[in-house]
Design brief:
Helix content: 40-55%
Number of strands: 5
Number of helices: 4
Largest sheet: 5 strands, mixed
CATH architecture: 2-Layer Sandwich
Main location: membrane
CATH superfamily: Lipoprotein like domain
Keywords: Cell outer membrane, Lipoprotein, Membrane, Palmitate, Signal
Subunit structure: Component of the lipopolysaccharide transport and assembly complex. Interacts with LptD.
Pfam families: LptE
Number of domains: 1
Organism: Vibrio alfacsensis
Order of helices and strands: HEHEEEEHH
CATH class: Alpha Beta
Shape: extended
Length: 180
Amino acid sequence: MRFFSLIKLPVVLVLSGLLSACGFHLRGEYSVPEELHTMSFNSYDEYSPLTRSVHAQLELNKVDLVAPSKNIPNLYLVSAELEERTLSLYQNSRAAEKELTYVVKYRVTIPELGAKNFMTVVTRNYLDNPLTALAKSVERDVIEDEMRQQAAAQIMRQLGRVRAEYEADTAVNASKKTTL
């Protein structure tokens, strides 16, 4: 058995070296554009769990957060809403399965390019058993926390392509001007 453990370590080291050499990045690693490496961050509620999640994601992606200024890009969380919809019913007409939809609206302002509004949506389903109400309320809280984490991760992914969004809008506006 000792022979196999001696072989495993070098194999793991060689494989990890090869993966890192080819540019492979673990999931959750998003490249924020260069113009957004220093930015300000504001929210509709400075103490909400979503604000804390987005702030943690920004720090994780090595974004320097500074005070708002005219020449600094800004990320502003406009709103966050949790909507609930009944998907199925028990025989006694109580909700059996529910769908939660978490909608986050935010605005990214880049000084030379202007402001652009974005939206991210996270949807989850869960079973609602009225006989285990306490356990289901705890489960729902956990699901809502996971949805906030997913929304914050989606915001980071969308920030990674914000430059392309601005350039696409500029190209569309330019083509509209040339056709007029």
